[in-house]
Amino acid sequence: MKKCMIFALAATTLFACKKETEPGTPQPESKYGSGVLISNEGVFNTGSGTVSFYNRDNKSIENEIFQEANGIPVGNILQSAAQFGDAVYLVVNNSQQIIVANAGSLKQEAVITGFQSPRFMKVVSGDKAYVTDWVSNSVRIVNVKTNSISGSIPTGIGPENMAQIGTKLFVANSGGFGADSTITVINTLTDQVEGSFVVGPNPSSIQVDVNGNIWVLCAGVSDWQDPTKDVGGKLVQVDRTTFTIMKSIDFPNNTDHPAKLSLNEAGTVLYYLSSGYGGDVFKMSISETMLPQSAFISGTFYGIGVDPLNDDVYTSDPLDYNQRGIVYRYSSNAQMIDSVRAGVIPGYFLFR
User: Fold this and answer.
1) HSE (side-chain half, CA atoms, 13 Å) at 81
2) Number of helical (H) and strand (E) elements in the chain, helices listed first
3) Which of 130, 152, 298, 345 could form a disulfide with 41 if both were Cys (CB 3.0 to 4.6 A apart)?
4) Which neighbouring-strand residues pair with 51?
């Protein structure tokens, strides 16, 4: 949802995690095994998020599988999902909680409360995970063996997506309700901030390519009161060792606010949306020095993901943000394979 819609509630601190798994790995109680979990945000402030399961093989979809398994709703704004071993973590932003469920059955195992605005979770080692907590401008440290928070690490404003290279974690600081232009660098062994570097206005998406270099998509600045003061987005490539900028490509218009940078499994092709509020899909090789001039797939897409099993591109259209949205599946050549109705505001894909 829009950043201005995310800051609905506020609270305090504690939660949990488990073990990561490779895509396609069968799970215990694998009613929902190899396939795609889709997190549907739900109507802002008035509705519950839901989870859908898409079967790649027979192109079928099952909706509201968490409610079916548990008889209770997920909570408002299901922001993202992560998997670690036999557990799935449903990161519920406005409800300020993370639900831990069995990866195969989606039966609830625990509810982790105490966040102010959890956004994304990343397991960084065999016993630890980090979660970006947007409102508190921090990353929460989680012991995944004891399922408890062991501390927090300060970041820039509005931490969003993360990427890891060895023992370094890179956190994109999206600017929250203000502005930021930095990436925070955290040592995952010491849980200490090693520094930060400047990339561009309001970075929110981050990926690591086949060469180990960092790509950051900066959304730019949207001035809701005076659009003439908007600042356009930027795509930046950063050297992983020196943190120096290797490429910096400005989007042509101050109204260009790209979002949701994704990467194919080989780490050679970038995908992004021209807008986070309904845009086209663009595709770009990491060797390019200029932005693509035409859309790879045209539409009003809100979510995007690239399947590591076959490089299929999944997109979502939330329609009017009140009814069930549509998920589209395309080949890496932009041929549509399938389209299905998911839940309200499908926004995140967890490939397994």
Assistant:
1) 32
2) 2, 28
3) 345
4) 39
Q: How many residues can be counted in the chain? A: 352
Q: pTM score > 0.85 for this model? A: yes
At residue 327, the pLDDT reads 98
Q: HSE of 40 in the Cβ direction (CA atoms, 13 Å)?
A: 32
19-55 as b/e: b if 16+ CB within 10 A: bbbeeeeebeebebbbbbbbbbbbbbeebbbbbbbbe
Contact between 228 and 234 (Cβ < 8 Å): no
Q: Which CATH class is domain 3-351?
A: mainly beta
The residue ranges of every structural domain in the chain are 3-351
- At 280-334, the pLDDT tens digits run 999 999 999 999 999 999 999 999 999 999 999 999 999 999 999 999 999 999 9
* C-alpha closest to that of 287 among 333, 230, 249, 327: 249
What's the distance, CA 297 to chain centroid? 20
